[in-house]
Protein 1
Amino acid sequence: MKPATFRDVTATHVPRAPDLHALDIALADVDGDGDLDAALAVEGGANRLYLNDGRGRFTWREGAFGDQPHDTEHVRAADVDRDGHIDLIFVAEDDRVHQLFLGRGGGRFTDASDRLPAQSEGNGLAVGDVNGDGLPDIVVGNSSKGHDARNSLWLNDARRPGWFIDATATHLPDIGNSAQGVALADLDGDRDLDMVVATEAPPTRLLINDGKGRFTEASDRLRQVTPLETREVHVLDANGDKRPDILLLNLTSNAGKWDKNPQARLLIQDAAGRFIDETARRLPANRFSSWGGAVMDFTGDGHPDLIVGAIAVPGFEPSQLRAYVNDGAGRFRDATTETIPAATTGRSWSMAVGDVNGDGDDDLFVGGWGTQARLLLGPATRRRN
């Protein structure tokens, strides 16, 4: 099926902020009106809340998360205290100020950051129930050197939902891994959440959950062919075999000189639970660096396609967003020209997928470093099929 074109509605639907460092976005209904609002993790500024009017047009509610600037890297949304309102977790890198905002309804929040048990140099964030008690827990990927680079695991306190217990020392291996991204997913088919950690210094890490939230390293299952500086990891069933695979988005360097190969890498899981790098025959070649991307079925054929951010390095130059179409067997072709409007350029960072305008099709909210965050309304796959 030939993919339809995304519609870039940034100019009319997103508050203008051409120099904002919006490094991550979480889409969630924070005001209870049935549509998806957007929380933005902002580096060097106050985090932002954009409220949706139901048609995908967003308005900035200033001061929703205070007015203090932080070096925020990531944001995730979940109801951590079981009160029926969406809460938001932010993690920061250089100033190490992690924040928890509890939703109070109507898009209002209370700062409950004192419920987070530690600070760290956070560069990755994932939220999910790792110990099977029905409450969302928090994993922070840390990027300092040495022992301080050990990741953090904070378990939601079943006796006081919305308060967190630091289980790092007892539940995570003592690994300094220079984390930049974290994904939680059931990678071994035992119905609990395992962990993949994207690292700026090789290797990528794979941690297996015992079902109670205790993780052991199994990175030897990752068969990587070259050292990587990875910024983001995604888990998807690329080839339709019902086994999760791993996508790694990589840099040549952090906006410096040419160093490592920034080619995006796709690791396919085999029947023995090993993840084999099959990039050469499955992904388009790239020489750009990628700080973020998204998995979404924008062709509507039931197979996951890919959106990949692109920045030219050396130079740190804005580039056009890329779109890769899945043939259904896990082989992707570059469909950017027919899918992404030519004007959709920037220093694209992490992204969020969701139906923001209520038409039944997923849309794409793209963060940006020092360039305008962008909203692309998704192709009308439901109406075409």
Note: The longest strand covers residues 37-45.
Protein 2
Amino acid sequence: MRVLLITVCVVVALAGCGGAGTVPDAIHGTEDTTADTESTPRQPTTPSSARYDVDVEQIEDLIHEKMNERRIQNGVEPLERNKTLDAVARYKSWDMAQQDYFAHNSPNRSTHAKLRGKYNVNCQYSGQNLVKDLGPINSSNKQLFLLDVERVSKRAIELLFNSTAHRQNALSSNYDSQGIGVFVDENGTVFVTQELCG
């Protein structure tokens, strides 16, 4: 019998704080019985950071690279990049920004499992890490903060690894691929989703 394992974690970086507040959540083989009004996922229609000049794809690439560096440093195989998981992650980050929430379940009660199902993603081991970085909001110049893609990507990795639950999820040997999705809202808040599959 095949067992589905889903692990989800959330981390928020509060404006002006160097650390991260975490709300870890783990789901192991649960059945999804919540209502869902969408028949298929919406694709992000609002450009990320329409108000700011931000190269979100470069940030995603750097997060992917930095995540694999951390995995190798910890004796874990690097993760392959998966375009379908990228699409799921980008949708999730966009959806959180558009609907003003920060959680694994959306306001319409759509769950992580349902979202992946809509993209036809099937994994024996499935995980999700979320980051909401409010750092740019307190910056004296949001645009300069967001243009520094190295800084933005490094902060996302540091926030994940400052949380025991997120670090364990990111370093799990159960996973062999990942997708990264970044969205910057009109206030300069950076939403990052890491989708994991094994």
Note: Residues 1-7, 12-38 have pLDDT under 50 and may be disordered.
